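DM from R.C. (forwarded with permission)

"hey, sorry to bug you on a friday — could you get me a structure for this? deadline for the figure draft is monday and I only need the backbone to look sensible"
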Amino acid sequence: MIFYGDGVVFLKEMEPRCGDFQTGAIAFPKKGTFKAGVRLSSGKKETTVVLRWWAYRQLIDVNKSNMKKFFVQPDEIKLLPEETYTLTALFTNPEDGLNEEVEWSIIEKNNGDITEEGVYTAPAVPTIATIKATLKSNPAVCAYAYITVEEEKANSLLKKAKNC
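My reply, with the result:
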């Protein structure tokens, strides 16, 4: 469920309000992702917006299917620009992964590079990359990881938000 409308509804009474803004969201249920957007009113000097969201996942009984299942470890990570990290495909049943090859790809264009071994190199600019791991033997079976590339540590961003 996605709620639309004025974000002031979700603010706590003690939180500072940084200005007028508009919000919107687009859901991609088949991928299990969404995009959220915030537009500050013109002429505002604020540079940081704290966006609060919740995600819920429908649980699936993996024992009811004979399809091979795997996930990407880690499925979320934060990196600095041009940093590298090796992702791993882990199978729920280790025997399933003995003779399996995984093909790694990045969904969005110009969001870094990934090798056949799952080594991701972040681009030089901040972004959010969706990494897709697909079984070569069955392209219908895939898993995702999400990588946030940011120049600053999250703690410094929170300090800036509190000062607005």
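R.C.: lifesaver. Residues 154-162 form the longest helix (9 residues).
me: no worries. The CA atoms of residues 7 and 22 lie 8 Å apart.
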